[in-house]
Design goal:
The complex is a heterodimer of chains A (116) and B (114).
Chain A lengths: L3 E4 L2 E4 L5 E7 L5 E8 L3 E10 L2 E4 L6 E3 L9 E3 L8 E8 L11 E2 L3 E5 L1
Parallel strand pairs in A: 2-11
Antiparallel strand pairs in A: 1-3, 3-8, 4-5, 4-9, 5-6, 7-8, 9-10, 9-11
Chain B lengths: L3 E2 L4 E5 L4 E7 L4 E9 L6 E7 L4 E4 L2 E6 L4 E6 L8 E9 L8 E2 L3 E6 L1
Classes of the chains: A mainly beta (116), B mainly beta (114).
Chain lengths: 116, 114
């Protein structure tokens, strides 16, 4: 069965360190997204990609970067982790047929990141 | 500026009764709306959606109603079951499938009481 996985599921790091969160999907979806979930804010878009070599900034992109070298993976990198980046991070993917109903996104299980 | 709003952070409903979750939006360009359900320590899962050309969509116990003039949608769950206890997120998309970007609300925690 097709799926979307994230690793690690839990991560504790220190302020200033570089951290990379992995996202891997076997849906063969062109579109991939990274969100963070914080109390009172819901899900906020960090970065997204419509295909290989394509990346775009979302609503809360400062301090984060992504790269898309293949269809299956969209790793999220925190260049220099800050305490404000303590959050739960979700990766998602969707098709891109151009029809409205392909806006449905399928989410991974999440990564809980703590920055001390 | 929150374009998708869920004004009730939490809702408690007795088992077997109807649960009604509400969502308001401000952007008249939104043309596709979705509801996601999220259990603790899991990712959100797609529940039901509705296109702006419709005013109602039904799937088993779940019905979504869309009132475009009021920029309001609601999710009805009937009858409510203990497994429905979760956080529910409303999401909206503009420009059809061209962007595939979703704007999420802040979520409503639904607790079903036995």
């Amino acid at each position: 069965d097709a799926e979307i996985t994230q690793s690690p599921r839990h991560k504790i790091t220190e302020t200033g360190r570089q951290v990379t969160l992995a996202c891997h999907q076997t849906w063969n979806h062109n579109n991939m997204f990274w969100y963070r979930q914080d109390l009172g804010h819901g899900l906020r878009l960090i970065h997204y990609s419509y295909g290989v070599q394509d990346t775009n900034k979302g609503e809360v992109s400062d301090g984060y970067s992504v790269s898309r070298s293949n269809t299956e993976d969209l790793p999220l990198t925190l260049e220099s982790a800050a305490s404000s980046q303590t959050s739960v991070y979700f990766c998602a993917s969707s098709e891109s047929s151009g029809l409205a109903d392909t806006d449905t996104q399928y989410f991974g299980p999440g990564t809980r990141l703590t920055v001390l | 500026d929150q374009q998708v709003k869920q004004n009730s952070p939490s809702l408690s409903v007795q088992e077997g009764r109807i649960s009604i979750l509400n969502c308001d939006y401000t952007n008249s360009m939104f043309d596709y709306f979705l509801w996601y359900k999220k259990y603790p320590a899991e990712g959100p899962t797609f529940l039901i959606s509705i296109s702006s050309i419709k005013d109602k969509n039904e799937d088993g116990r779940f019905t979504v109603f869309l009132n475009k003039s009021a920029k309001h949608l609601s999710l009805h769950i009937v009858p409510s079951q203990p497994g429905d206890s979760a956080v529910y997120f409303c999401a909206a998309s503009d420009n059809g499938g061209a962007t595939n970007k979703l704007i999420f609300g802040t979520g409503t925690l639904l607790a079903i009481q036995p």
